Amino acid sequence: MAVVTTTPSTSPGAAAAAPEPERRAGSPARPVRLLIGAVGMVVTAWLVCNIFLAFAYYPQWFAGSGILIGLLGLIVGIGGSVVFFYFLNLCIEGFPSRFSEGLIPYAFLLPGFSLIAILLLYPTVQTIVYSFANKDSTAWVGLENYQAIFGDAGFWSALLNNLLWILIVPILTVAFGLAVAVLADKLSATGERIAKSFIFLPMSISFVGAATIWGLIYAYNTPGSPQTGLLNAIVVALGGEPHAWYQIDTARLNSLLLMVILIWLQTGFAMVLLSSAIKGVPEDTIEAGRMDGASEGRIFWQIVFPQVRPTMLAVFITVLILVLKVFDIIYVTTNGRDSTDVIANLFFRKLFVEQQAGQASAVVVVLLILVLPILVYQVRSFRQQEANR
Amino acid sequence: MIRRPGRRTVLAGAAATAAAGLSGCLQNPDPNNGGGGGGAQKYTEGDTPGTGTVTILGAFGGQEQSAFEESLADFQSEHDITIQYTPDQDFTTTIQQRVGAGDAPDIALFPQPGGMFDLAAQGHITPIDVYLDYDALAGTLIPGFLDSARLQGRVYGAPMRMACKSLIWYPKKAYEAAGYPNDPATMQELYAIADQIKGSGIAPWSDAWGADQATGWVGTDWIEEFMLRVHGPEIYDDWIYHRMPFNAPEVVEVFGLVGELLKGEGNVLGGTATILNTPFSEAPLPLFAEPPQAMYVRQGNFVTGFLPADILENLDEEVGVFAMPTWEGGFEGQPILGGGDLAALFTLNDDTVEVMKFLTSPEFGGPWAQAGGWLSPHKTFDASQYADETTRRVFDIAANAQVFRYDGSDVMPNAVGGGSFWTGMVEWLQGAKDAQTVCDEIEAGWPS
């Protein structure tokens, strides 16, 4: 954004010109500046908001032209924020300089922080609040929603599935990603490029698209008729009977088959990051290992692996958080039938099909509580990495 | 590394306080007071002049949209009214949002009555008796349509299109070559023919329920068809409007009857696994295999859209259809299960009333009937306008029905009709749960 274009944050020059006997370090408060800044901020915000409302309410003022409105929107939006920050700066400078120097960074963080507050913190708190209210959030019901979901076998089944997804998908994704990255590294430059492109390709497919593609692999046709599903075609060619894969919940086979889809999608992501990490391993450390006569396996496990571990962890946690939110794949394939339900799908069904806002909120609050430790861990390990630099 | 927990704590505290301050209250239980519609008792032309433009929101796009617009072209030039039709895939949600935000279209075409009732109850929709000739409409419409748009004594929408579900399709050439009769008077007679077909070595029925996240809706149609035939329209209405519990013995009995048909050994091609794992659009395909693998598919009139191209070209020679017959010992008249788009009025003025009059009249829809895939809900519609004999046959079946009833799962609350009823059907067909358990669970989940 245009934040950087503001005037220098403090202007001791003007203040220093006047004879100031008391203190060298700072300037006193300048109420006029403060006032102009504050009023300017309010007026700018008011004006910008109303211009945007006018776009919506009175398109005829702008000749009903979408292009004109879009252009004006850009100008008013960007220009407005520049002007807003100018007045903000002015206002802060009005404070005594001791004060304003400390305030400036926070003032500039404010817009970003308020966006987070409005879009993240407010809905979070609201959800927690609504989890204690009834189905259309009009009356308090205490812990009834939590009792309802904890007493529901479907909830525990979904929780178990989420646990399986968490345990299996991130580890396999990282393992496959690492394997591909290491093996591709041994190829010629062209070979590596082609191999990596192909493995990265699924990343650009949406979850719903991927579920449709894999639907062709898991498809089931009546025994005796030609099998259009790849998996069943193979099974039948080998002399077996076709199976309705999505319906087999013995040992959660159907959930495992759904996990394959996500692993297929995410391996490319893991590969790209891990591959660059492997390339970043200093050649001299490997060279040193070779000099000492270490085998390729030993070089990998004892020299390369420790150096790419932080990246692996980052990939692992990113995929883990993705898996916690997994929804689309389940929704379009089984919609949670045959014990494949997961928390996110359960939430969607509670809210949009059963219209039980209270129970739906309770379900996501449970999800939130489950995600928190992982988030805390990630933030902490990130900070540690930063500190180690 | 210097840690300054003090500042961070203060910030987090401030954030939490701000968020709590913004959110720590409940929503207004009745946010939509007032708004359009409601008030007037009888509208006479000239009360409110129109603006010359009428906006319509509906769920269908693509070919259907162009056929719809074509059907309105002459009307627009005659009356000097511009109609702006907006299709929306997610109509059910969009209409609620737009009306809630005070941005209702002039007219909305509801594919299901449920969403219309919600808005009518909030007073946003003008009942049709205010501006349409109710008696004339009731005289030409297939009986039952207006009843399904009635809320607390007043009718809020009039049908603009009909879907007919109680149809049994068969591969005409193979079926007639084998000499099976195509006019069974009762389901029991149909079962006797089905047994003959079974004797010839193929399954009589093909059925498919697969519809991604909506899998199971075909099953709800089976239950509704049998409820209507075995117990008659009155008990059917009691059931869909929840005047009797979902797990009443009548319903459980019907699950049993449908189960005998669908789960019976050799009755349906491939058994329950095929039913659940085949997309509903592929159900008719085995009928037209060489040689046919099955003879009957029960599905609505829209199923012709999924037929292979070479069959579709010679629809009248290749495909036969008859009404799903009555149940011996059940309701005597021929009932038809179906659906329709209900036109409902949000803005009352001369132009919108004019458009509503035309949309809900038997004169509407000629070009759409030509284009195919559309049925008029009026008995008096000029059937010669339909593109083929099969459509005319379907229209005859619907027009001659003694009773028309709306698809029950469309009328039930979404939690049931678009949720537990669907999943319950799947669990029941798989044999994971018996009929009583499934019905008990659906009843328990019925929104209070």
TrEMBL record, chain A:
Transmembrane feature ranges: 34-58, 64-91, 103-122, 163-185, 197-220, 255-274, 312-332, 357-379
UniProt entry tagged with the keyword Transmembrane helix: yes
Name the UniProt record assigns to this protein: Sugar ABC transporter permease
Superkingdom classification of source: Bacteria
One GO BP: transmembrane transport
Pfam families the UniProt entry points to: BPD_transp_1
Location relative to the cell: Cell membrane
Record's compositionally biased regions (Low complexity): 1-19
GO cellular component, one term: plasma membrane
Record domain ABC transmembrane type-1: where: 159-376
UniProtKB/TrEMBL annotation, chain B:
Chain spans, region Disordered: 22-48
InterPro entries: Bact_solute-bd_prot1, SBP, TAT_signal
Transport among keywords: yes
One Pfam family matching this protein: SBP_bac_1
PROSITE patterns according to UniProt: PROKAR_LIPOPROTEIN, TAT
Keyword terms: Transport
Family recorded in the similarity comment: Belongs to the bacterial solute-binding protein 1 family.
Protein name: Sugar ABC transporter substrate-binding protein
